[in-house]
Amino acid sequence: MKRTAPKTVLLLCVLMLGLSCDVPGERMEQPQTENALPTQGVNTVSAQTQTTGMNTVLTTQAWEAYNRRDYKAAIESADKCIKEFLGRAMRDQETLAAKKTPLPPIGAVSNQDKQVIFVRGLLNDVATCLYIKGRSLEAEGRKEEAVKVYKETAKYTYARCWDTQGWFWSLSEGALDRLRMLR
């Protein structure tokens, strides 16, 4: 699967109970650079209930700040989400691994697989915020700190993000890709 970053890409972060974030009417332009994320720009939108949780709000704020190249604000929002929800995300990851639950697929998936991924919203958001934090640290030239954050992100093998081009991507694999690039 080719993972290129077009100038403007919509992102749906997969969130708890089918909540998702995508781009509002205004799209952020992101040049194709080393700092471009695989997916860009978000706004909180519920796929089922039109409600949002704090994890959704913080993840949205982190993406939007990153897209504005306000890396300090991106890190601050990401850190708030991570601080608040890391314990639950770790438990979710550990439980799935202990049960030897098959990893969710990447790429285009069935509706049934989408629902399974959506239910893991907190796990997805924490991993997304870790990834955003890593990219922001990297953009600020803070390589050693970015490496540490990417190593943490890589632990969340069950976390996924939805790209509105029609496929899921793995935050763990994305972090491992960044680690290879930084070595």
Summarize the structure.
By secondary structure, this protein is α+β, with helices and mostly antiparallel strands.
What does this entry look like structurally?
With 183 residues, this protein is of the alpha+beta class. It has one domain (11-175). The chain contains 6 helices and 5 strands. The chain has a 5-stranded antiparallel sheet. α1 (54-67) packs across α2 (71-98) and α1 (54-67) packs parallel to α4 (121-139). Mean pLDDT is 78; it is low at 1-51.
Topology, element by element:
Elements: E1 11-14, E2 19-22, E3 43-46, H1 54-67, H2 71-98, H3 111-119, H4 121-139, H5 143-153, E4 160-163, E5 167-170, H6 171-182
Antiparallel strand pairs: 1-2, 1-4, 2-3, 4-5
Runs with pLDDT <50, length 5+? 1-51
Report the major sheet. 5 strands, antiparallel
How big a fraction of the residues is strand? Answer: 5-15%
Indicate the mean pLDDT: 78
Distance between the termini: 23 Å
Q: Provide the domain count.
A: 1
The secondary structure category is alpha+beta
Number of strands: 5
Instruction: Tell me which oligomeric state these chains represent.
Output: single chain
